[in-house]
Amino acid sequence: MNKVLYVARKVKGLTEAQLAKVLKMEEREYIKMERSLTEVSAPQALQLAKLFGLDAELFLHTEGRDVRLLKYASDQISGFMKSGYTDTLPQQYVVNIVSLGNAALRLAADLNHAVYKQYELEQDNEALRKLIAGT
After folding, report:
1. Distance CA 31, CA 70 (A)
2. What confidence score (pLDDT) does residue 67 get?
3. Model-level pTM greater than 0.90?
4. What is the DSSP letter of 14?
5. What are the DSSP calls for 54-101, one per residue?
6. pLDDT digits (tens, 9 = 90+) for 79-126
7. Phi-psi category of residue 14: left, alpha or beta, with phi > 0 → left and psi -120 to 50 → alpha
8. How many helices (H) does the chain have, and how many strands (E)?
């Protein structure tokens, strides 16, 4: 769920239908966007930023970061396997290297995710405090 979008809409007392109309979209499409089933586009984020007096970036980044982090780890492992470095190694060594690399990438991704999640929550809290103080 795009929590900032949901709370901002509620604080302003807008319905899903009203905000959909402001964004010139169908209500069902807006609902998908608020539930993070579809992404907020850059123009929509700018429009929302003007409407709510918040930073546009807050509306762009929603759930789904885990998938992107896992894709990054997978891409890194694939790149290593395609590089040719493993062609002369015994198969068991390759399996061990990939396992270690996979674990390291997963831990690095988890750490990055935790740090970014903390930053994101701090930004969300700051934005929501600003929004509530302005009402």
Report:
1. 27
2. 62
3. no
4. -
5. S-THHHH--S-HHHHHHHHHHHHHHHHHHTSTTTTS-HHHHHHHHHHH
6. 877 888 777 888 888 788 778 877 887 787 777 678 777 878 888 888
7. beta
8. 7, 0
